[in-house]
Amino acid sequence: MRIEWNTAAAFIVVLTTQAFACTRTEPAPGAGPSGSGSAAAAPADKTSISVKGSDTMVILGQRWAEEYMKVNKGITVQVTGGGSGTGIAALINGSTDICEASRPMKDKEKQEVKAKRGADAVETKVALDALAVYVNTKNPLEEISVPSLAKIYLGEAKTWKDVGGPAKPLILYGRENNSGTYGFFKEHVLENKDFAPGVQTLAGTAAVVAAVKGDPNGIGYGGIAYSEGVKTLKLKKDDKSPAIAGTLETAQNGIYPLARFLYFYTAGEPTGSMKKFIDWVESDAGQKIIEQVGYYPLPKK
Question: 145-160, pLDDT tens digit by residue?
Answer without folding.
Answer: 999 999 999 999 999 9
